[in-house]
Amino acid sequence: MGKKQDDRQAETLKKVFYRLGRYRIFLVFTILLSVVTVALTLYIPKLTGKAVDCIAAKGRVDFGGVIEILWQIGICILITAFAQWLMNICNNKMTYQIVQDIRNDAFQKIEILPLKYIDSHSYGEVVSRVIADVDQFADGLLMGFTQLFSGAATIIGTFCFMLSVNIKITFVVVLITPVSFLVAGFIAKRTYTMFKLQSETRGEQTGLIEEMIGSQKIVQAFGQTEHVMERFDEVNVRLQDCSLKAVFFSSITNPATRFVNSLVYTGVGVTGAIGVINGSLSVGQLTSFLSYANQYTKPFNEISGVVTELQNAIACAKRIFDLIEEDAQVPEAENAVRLNHVKGNIKLSDVSFSYVPERKLIEHFNLDVKPGQRIAIVGPTGCGKTTLINLLMRFYDVTGGSIEVEDVDIRDLTRHSLRAGYGMVLQETWLKTGTIRDNIIMGKPDATEEQITAAAKASHAHSFIKRLPKGYDTWITEDGGNLSQGQKQLLCITRLMLVRPPMLILDEATSSIDTRTEIRIQKAFARLMEGRTSFIVAHRLSTIREADVILVMKDGQIIEQGSHEELLLKGGFYQNLFQSQFAEA
Predict the structure, then answer these.
(1) What is the pLDDT, as a whole number, of residue 582?
(2) What is the pLDDT of residue 584?
(3) What is the SS3 assignment for 16?
């Protein structure tokens, strides 16, 4: 278990260093400025020791020598401050450039992830990886590299300065030092797992919060407030528990290394005092040595804290790298062709598909659609109607058989040209933050004002849009703001009316619209569908009577097909569905 964890950490660190390599110029400057800062900082105690030796006894003070040394110390301090300022700029620049790259890569990957990944992961959990985990990674990287370089340079530099003062006392310091490494290493191995669990639980909590905020009305309407609170409390308690353990173990590191550092300081003080008594060491040299001993041990405290931050950063980095390295959707074929001159020929041959291998959904499905046909798809919930739409649009790839448009397998077409050939209105509306006009012209950005107005009138959306505070320039949020569900659906229909694509997919397109408006829109759809291949998914069978072919689906299979009158005469499953809706009438 421990070896696997170390391997995972090493693999994540390799990826971090690879990204650091892109900004090696900032890394080099950070290291060089760190060396300058440490060298001057360590030179000051040596000057201080000389100043002490200039004050030998009463009446034997070399004021000229002391003033000269003070000037040197002042210059060293100014140069050190300037070098440290530049080092922080370089480190910040490097860190946030890397963070920007990671977020760009993550967002680009989300854009090309297969829908099965998005459908199987909480939106909030994905958001947590891109926002919270990257922030945690940035904090660890920023603190880690600033203190790691300075700390390492301080330890090496102090060791060299101590050797130049007294070799014997230097060895006393070196003999006690490994204890600090052992303590920090022992604790660090145990903190990684806890920080990883903390990051995962935080993502789960973010996902729950995002889900509940988006579904607040449903939660309150069904009286699930207490149940949701219990779920949140349970996740919150787990987050508290793993966070406390992670912080507890990481907080032990600093006191433990401070104890070791106190032993080092004590050892130097006692050994140095004996050296002064014997005359092998001056008081000024002992002063310098005590200062060096303190500076030598201080980085161990900082590095132990850095190790904790780096453990957290590595745990967060692994989660974001897992997202970036997730398998993208199946790439387009190298010789993928663009779909042009679409007439509406669609053929499904022996199509099979399932979301999970152990649960079959669509098997050996065959369908041949001619240009201009209106295909209605009906059946009970879960029979595969929406899945069929996902396959036609290539949101999912078939697991068997093929789908052809204009005698070309859709896997040999570019996704953009295939989807551009369809106009789609779903039961679930989608609007983006922007004006009403921005939402209407999504499929045709160059549309004129006359075209936009004509499309809105065709969808019967023009009247309610004109009643809005700023008409077509009214600003709405991604959930539609104060628009009703029906108004949001009318906007989605307006998009379709504006683009007028060669093939249509209407999945419960009028489910949220009042009956009077629905009748008008059905007439507009009828005009729009003339000469266009159209797929209509509907539960209300009254809306599909005029379809050329009605496909009756059950358990992923077409069990009946024909016109409305033909299916009623068969007296099968369709007749039962129809009678269940109109029995009272």
Answers:
(1) 62
(2) 47
(3) helix
For 255, the token pair is 């006191």
Q: What is the pLDDT of residue 78?
A: 93
Q: Are 336 and 412 in contact (CB under 8 A)?
A: yes
The CA distance from 499 to 447, in Å, is 9
What is the pLDDT, as a whole number, of residue 43? 81
Using alpha carbons, list the distances in angstroms from residue 157 to 36, 153, 199. Answer: 10, 6, 37
Query: Beta 346-353 vs 400-405: how paired, if at all?
Result: antiparallel
Count of beta carbons in the 10 Å neighbourhood of residue 374: 22
Phi first, then psi, for residue 552 (nearest 5°) are -100, 115
- Which three-class secondary structure state does DSSP give residue 351? strand
CB 538 within 8 A of CB 516: no
Can you tell me the distance from the alpha carbon of 396 to that of 393, in angstroms, rounded to the nearest whole number? 8
User: In the numeric block, which tokens belong to residue 567?
Assistant: 């299916």
Nearest to 544 by CA among 534, 553, 557: 534
Residue 263 forms part of a structural domain: yes
CA angle 354, 355, 361 (to 5 degrees): 35
Q: Do 293 and 264 contact (CB within 8 A), yes or no?
A: yes
Evaluate whether residue 341 is within a structural domain: no
Query: What was the pLDDT predicted at 82?
Result: 93
Beta strands in 258-394 (DSSP E): 346-353, 362-369, 374-378
| pLDDT of the residue at 585 | 44
Q: How far is CA 341 from the centre of its chain?
A: 39
Residue 300's identity, in one-letter code, is F
Q: Are strands 362-369 and 346-353 parallel, antiparallel or unpaired?
A: antiparallel
User: What is the C-alpha separation between 480 and 432, in angstroms, rounded?
Assistant: 8
| Residues 330, 523 contacting (CB under 8 angstroms) | no
Q: Is residue 335 part of a domain?
A: no
DSSP tag of 356 = B
Q: For residue 58, give every residue at least 6 positions away whose Cβ sits within 8 Å of its Cβ, in sequence order, or none.
A: none
What total of structural domains would you count in the chain? 2
10-residue mean pLDDT profile of the chain (585 residues): values are 64 82 84 84 78 68 80 89 88 86 89 81 80 82 70 78 75 71 67 75 81 76 82 88 80 72 74 75 72 71 67 81 84 83 87 80 83 85 78 87 90 88 81 88 88 89 88 82 79 86 81 72 76 81 76 79 84 80 55
| Domain shared by 379 and 248, yes or no | no
494/514 Cα distance (integer angstroms): 16
Instruction: Return the closest-CA partner of residue 407 out of 321, 310, 341.
Output: 341
Which structure tokens are listed for 281?
């060491």
271 and 395 within one domain: no
Same domain, 386 and 278: no
CATH number at residue 42: 1.20.1560.10
Cα 504 off chain centre by: 34
- The pLDDT, as a whole number, for residue 154 is 78
State the DSSP code for 443.
Answer: G
